[in-house]
Design a protein that fits this description.
Elements (H helix, E strand, L loop, with lengths): L7 H4 L4 H10 L1 H21 L7 H23 L1
Amino acid sequence: MSHTPHELHEEFPDMADRITALKTSDAHFARLMDDYHAVNRQVHAAETNVTPVSPAAETDMRKERARLKDELYAMLTA
């Protein structure tokens, strides 16, 4: 598979050290990050027609990715 856009370290490059620290010290953050990356890969597969889905399903996946990203950002900036 090609490079997947929206990877968390690319979304928040100035917080790379904090992302790494929280991933190793906070199990909840690590789980959310894993969930984010799983949904992100699904969105990318849908966008590139590797795994075609309905427009509604793709929209739902994007909303879930945004929700997870918002929650991760809140933890990063807390």
